[in-house]
């Protein structure tokens, strides 16, 4: 086990199940917690974009979603014919 220190942590059953769902194959629970704790929150990005840039990004996301829906509709139509 090397020279790592270990701690016991109590979790509610709900918290345990959430952590278990986030656990990736081959990953220990410690690995999972370290990965999740290192993730950045979207709130960390607040204030980085101007309002105009944020509007442009929202528009681009909406356009991409519409294109994806259109492609899916065309594919579904081909499958049904």
UniProtKB/TrEMBL annotation:
Keywords: Toxin-antitoxin system. InterPro entries: Put_antitoxin. It comes from the Archaea. It holds the Pfam family VAPB_antitox. Residues 60-81 are annotated as: Disordered. This is Antitoxin. It comes from Natrarchaeobaculum aegyptiacum.
